[in-house]
């Protein structure tokens, strides 16, 4: 008999909260996104709560936003993922460590080597979030005047994946003999030279590091476009995504899982984890009040710009403290407009509050008590909206503590989340098998 | 009054011993070069001994050597420097962490960011060993068929240094206000966009990380050619080098320090640390016997090839267990031949022993008691052969323990080495000042 399906939980940790007002929330550490001591304490709490993974998003530039928003943004200084996750590997024991690396602006030899090294140092806890990097400012930090075109980015990403995994397979698992007596350190018969030549990449190999403990670090992907979904189906073992609600989540889940059979993969070999913003209160009203309080910390100038984009209509002339006035329908942004109107109606928000929602964090959110949030998470799992979540904390440490110390015990009580790690590696936590070496038995 | 000059000591840690037979020495850990637990214990011992720095050499390929040598080589699997040093940063407090990064096969935005991140995570203990990468096999792992030409490598290195240091200066030290009350995170007036366009590189900036605690991580350089020395004079704060003996050391020291005035630098702003292989015994005879024992672990096939190269003459037909036969002088390798003959005479070595010396480690070596080795180190310091050493351990843990627990106390007793760290950063340990930000007061 199969064990009941359980949630997988990742923590979205760069910046520590995606909400632009988080660093100003009462009790928050304004420097949390860039303090090793704080990040270490968060990682230890998440490990105590048995989270699957600690996830470092990454951007190869200062994020492009108007200066009025940028000067208020806690994203502007952050650690580089490998240095941070390696440091955390030395002070944690079980939690997975997922780093983002770009296939557009890095080299497969470097990427393969660093992830292999992180996997060895952490005893099998590394994961690679493959991104093609959508921020065009990144290109200008790497010698280009313009961004690489979307299709070409994905073509390179696919080939990059083949090269990196091929390099990871350079040595058979039993290649290293280390026989001090005979003086033989390794068996050259158990070493493969990749010699890859493709349209985008030319890489000889072998890698100068033993095969990772996990065989390959866990492959994560977060592209949402058609080529992004196809890359996920062909390569990913975890998909990070951002559906707006359960019905969108179910559609995306069915779409991505539906692509697996055609490439000869089992549905269970890929886990789908939407980003979910979680705000806990003793009552639903308290949770909502906390969220409004947090949203109120978003500066109005950047907030109203975000609302205008969502509406497809300039909102800067509206009375901030009145309800949303009637807005003519346009062809440009039908879904965006409809979503704003629905939200304004449901939560009875003023223009200012609506704007601050869009300027803060407007994605999927679970706002309520541990009970109502556990109900919602259970529904997503049950109705095949997801295999778990990549949790976005509203503010830290409080919002993280609320999840780790209050929500997780409730999920555990319901049998929806592990009460202890069953294995050592990130693959063990996620229920993923160890890939075979393509060159050796 | 100035304090008496003291030695600076680095530890050459990749591979843990450069000696090819080290992993076979009695008591050695055959997996030490690739075991985080071992490397952590070494770093802690070196820190307890107040070493300036732990140095990770690096190579972007499996080292090119004949397969008979390669299969006996403990270099074939190693950690990537940033992942290893970041992990060590989390478990050490004072020792400097010097990583090697290539200017030929990496991107300045990546390099600037990773060193800045390591410097922040370690609270000011990072150093960058700038290499242009001489191993031609590396080129083939990065899309090229042939190695980049030497002069072009150094031209790129010089420009690369300007870009990396310019990126480190992206933010003024006081740029981050983090005022939760007003919501201002940083002052855009204290942010500089580099906008570099040069013959080799085009990089916009700014870097997405605050200026490193040390201003810039310590700049290390190890090139020996004319452009290598000039790059050192213009940019380096530490030079790693490998003079064969004190007279060569003095010439190199005078040459490099002599170049500083022309570029407007004080002699003391650059420290010269030759690699030194240190073998300690209770008596000089015991130390020599240990070295012979270690050399005897080098396989004869690779040993004799190394000797032939040093002699400029095929030695494979010689009787291994007899003294070196007379060898006709050639024009090809006058110095090499003279050095071999001198060594054969001084230490009365057989062909086999000579070969194993060249196949093991043939560079500068101090072999003796703590007293004789301290005398030699003192002479180098006194006679301006060096400002200290980058110690190569013959075998580990024993050879490292002998230095950390026996030689260092003797150096301390003589006032030649610190008895405790006086400051927090690697710059403090080395007596180097913090560079000014070129864009901000
Ligand atoms: C949860 C989540 C996390 C993401 N993290 C990153 C990241 O760290 N770095 C990055 O460059 N892009 C990141 N992305 C963006 C995706 O990689 C991708 O560029 C984006 O979803 C657009 O899809 P497309 O590239 O297929 O058009 C993330 C996306 C999602 C949904
Ligand atoms: C002590 C020492 C350490 C070195 N470490 C490295 C290293 O880690 N990686 C590397 O590619 N080269 C290393 N080198 C080689 C130098 O960077 C340089 O390529 C070599 O000395 C030849 O000099 P040249 O490039 O100026 O001709 C080292 C050299 C010395 C003396």
General description of the model:
2 copies of one chain form a homodimer. Chain A is α/β, with parallel strands linked by helices and 441 residues long. Chain A is built from 15 helices and 13 strands. Chain A has helices at residues 36-48, 67-70, 81-89, 108-121, 136-140, 150-168, 226-235, 246-258, 284-295, 300-311, 334-347, 351-360, 370-382, 398-413, 426-430, and strands at residues 8-12, 53-56, 96-102, 126-131, 176-179, 184-186, 196-197, 202-203, 218-221, 238-241, 271-280, 365-368, 388-392. In chain A, the strands form 3 sheets. In chain A, strands 1-2-3-4-9-10-11-13 form an 8-stranded parallel barrel, surrounded by 7 helices. In chain A, strand 3, helix 4 and strand 4 (126-131) form a beta-alpha-beta unit. In chain A, helix 6 packs parallel to helix 7, helix 10 (300-311) packs across helix 11 (334-347) and helix 13 packs across helix 14 (398-413). Chain A starts with 7 loop residues before the first strand and ends in an 11-residue tail after the last helix. The site of one flavin mononucleotide has 18 residues of chain A, from strand 10.
